[in-house]
Amino acid sequence: MKKILAVLLTLALLAALVPAALADNGTYTTYYAGEVSTLNYLVSSTENDQVVGANIVDTLVEYNTYGEVIPCLAESWENSEDGLTWTFHLRKGVKWYDCFGEEKAELTAADFVSGLKYVLTPAYESAIVSNVFTAQIVNAEAYYNGEVTDFDQVGVKAADDYTLVYTLANPVPYFVSMTTYGSFMPVYGPLAEELGASLGVDNQSIYYSGAYILETFEPQSERLYVKNQNYWDADNVFIEKIDQLYNAESATLSPIAALRGEVDYAALDNDIMDDWRANHAELITQSRSNLQYSYFYCFDFDPQYEEEYEPANWLIAVNNANFRHSIMSAMDRTYALTAETDTPEALLENTITPPAFASVNGKDFSTLPAFANIDQYFYNPEKALEYKAKAVDELTAAGAKFPIKLVMTYKTNDSDWANQVQLQKSQLESVLGTDYIDVVLYAGPADNFLSMTRRAGKYSMQRCNWGADYADPETWTDPFEINIDSETGKYQGNSYNKMDKMYDTDYAETKAFLDAYYAKVKEAKAETSDIEKRYNLFAEAEAMLIENAIIIPFRKSTTDYQVTKIDVYEGEYAPFGICNLKYKFMHLQDEFVTAEQNEQSYKAWVDSMEKK
Amino acid sequence: MLKYLAKRVARSLLTLFFILTIVFVLVRQMPIEGYFPNFEKMTPSQIENGLHQMGLDQPMTVQLANFYKGLLHGDLGVSRVYNRGKPVWDILKTKIPISIQLGSLSILFSMLVGLPMGIHMAQRKGKLPDHLGTAFIVLIQAVPAAVYYLFIQLYGTELMQIKLRFDPGDWRSWILPVLSLSLGNIAYYAMWIRRYMVDESTKDYVQLARIKGCNGSRIMFRHIFRNAFVPMAQYLPTSFLNTVIGSIYIESLWSIKGMGGLLVDVIHKQDNNMILGIVLLFACVGIIGLILGDVLMVLFDPRISFTKKGGDGA
After folding, report:
1. pLDDT tens digits, residue range A228-282?
2. C-alpha atoms less than 13 angstroms from C-alpha of A438 in its C-beta half-sphere
3. C or N: which end of chain B has fewer Cβ atoms within 10 Å?
4. Half-sphere exposure (Cβ direction) of B306: Cα atoms closer than 13 Å
5. All structural domains of chain B with their residue ranges
6. From A123, A129, A141, residue closest to B53, measured CB to CB
7. Beta carbons of A201 and B83 less than 8 Å apart
8. Which fold has domain B89-300?
9. Tens digit of pLDDT for each residue in A319-332?
10. How far apart are CA B148 and CA B166, in angstroms?
């Protein structure tokens, strides 16, 4: 009897503990430093603004914590055999509410049409309209440019209240993933008509159909989200309130506020990590890695910097494959990464497309056959010297002078980056010798950095990055895309590294490479029915960039150190779109997540991902 | 006096015109990429449309004309980035009172503490109070303000058991930001009033008053202090009006939603209408402050005249 009682008491205790550990109500309080410029999710491209939209209005589909597409506002969807028509069947009974929680109308297919019309109206200056063009919606770009004036000719229709149909000009295999962007979100049509450009100026000039309602919005003061009790998926919304308090110095003050119990989350800057490791190591956790961005090194094929750094000499060198390979083989990327992280191996990538971004028939894109021997092109000091010897002969014959000046840029207010280029300078020069290269470090301005460096051609080699726009490897070819003027048929130099400008030069080797590369990309884009073949073609194109040392892959997005009361592995996981900004599915704990708990969650998540 | 003021106002309007025009032209020299956070992924037609919506595709003279036309109708335009779509004046009018409140409290507190402190130091010149006051002034001027601002916030909030972030609903929340903002001004007022009073106390009229047997306090306050305060009075209107500008660091540190840091923020964001609106406000504050300062000096010291030129013939 006593034993039974003891067991029952233990069970009761455990049962009492679990709800306490995973509170189904409570307020998640944080500081934020960057105020949103607008609540209008149809116009803004910054993640800072999109966090609002992600939590107040839903998309057609969303993602689970394993990156798998799951129904959201659309219960089901299908596409026609030719891939040109996509039909989404909407969930019934979803309602629009105002910031006071008052029901305004039912959400119907017409609201998606209204949303797209708003995005395609030039006067509203949507920064995300290009997503609609990428999705190749019929007549979308023509309507935006004024060539088509009747919106009924644009490829979006509400067949009935709960059936939404998109018509595409060409098949787009990744179309469903594109619907997770703001440009494809619904808006209550009459409100958008009435307010026009004033939509989303404050929390009263927008309607809500998502997990949360923005009850309070005081710019530079507070944003208070409250759970939408009538949300169609309210059972999966566990945090009752999210209270975001403005603090311009939140980077400095959040950690202290967290220890005092004033906030439930704080990012931990590298500068304070030593102190935290010494005193609060058990509370340090890491954010989930973000596959949305990939970092790589570009060589500049159109240097425009000052004469003292010898741009003409650089141009001769960069068009020599052995020279580029010598740099690539000499670069110890792991060593360079130590400036940014304690775990460089975890961030390093050997492809431009991040691992786990896409897979086909169970095979990750970064492990496709085209990349089988890609490792041989990376850090190898002996090979670097072999390439150097060949490059010296060839470049001397071509009229180049040594040492070749290599201008390496970094952002002046990014201390990690500044440290990194210092490491790289000393490392490259020690392997290759200062008789061969002279690495010149150039600090670009904090503001308009890209305008003053990469876009202006004021670099020889620069760390660049690109963010995925959709769930297809094609997205990673976009920075190297070449624009052809439809009237003249001539190319317009547009690639990140201006390599396409070499078409106007006598560098035959580079031009031959460009022909082969762009032909491969074209072939890959044209393949829209056999996805495995499509992915393999893109892999071959990407491998060409690496094998010819045009691009040096570097790393994934860094993870941040943090202290938080939320388990990051509960939330949605998507390398594009806005779904990973949602608080849905997440629980607020009474205590901070411990390092051990974070590690366990990470392992469980990785195990599950590998099984899928 | 009225003629003088009318001339000053006319000259000030011309100054304002030059300031606004120069800033207007300068901000439009910024790279166009700064207007578009998503520049890399925008199509040429998107960029063209964006520039058209901002009016930046027009010739500069047309843009200027449109700006002044709007200004004369009281229209400062709308914010494009900071608070998209919201009229510039609507944004500013919510922030100005907060900065004025914080700044005014700070000035009042600074004067209530700094002036008596300076007077006491002058009266006890060379003695312990003077040395202690000097040590305080040196410390405040030598230590970067950001250091003691943070120090006060971290330890003061812990001591007072209040939140790190400013809470308008809690009156105690005002104490530390006002104190932080005041320390520099306390040191300033104390230092200068002490100096001016010491200078005045060596003058002949003071010696004469002492010989005639005037009471020490009467000499100190009716004569020395009054004359010593004249140079400081000139800057009082400017000081109060400058509270509109706000304190960049204090308001950021405490999350007080005033004007502080706003100009820097909107320049970073290339929000042209906000930049011009704030520059207009600051320029007006500066100009009005200078005019009022001159008027105050005349009120304090009847020997000063706007119409007569040359030195004092007293």
Report:
1. 999 999 999 999 999 999 988 888 899 999 999 999 999 998 888 999 999 999 9
2. 12
3. C
4. 17
5. 89-300
6. A123
7. yes
8. MetI-like fold (1.10.3720)
9. 999 999 999 999 99
10. 17
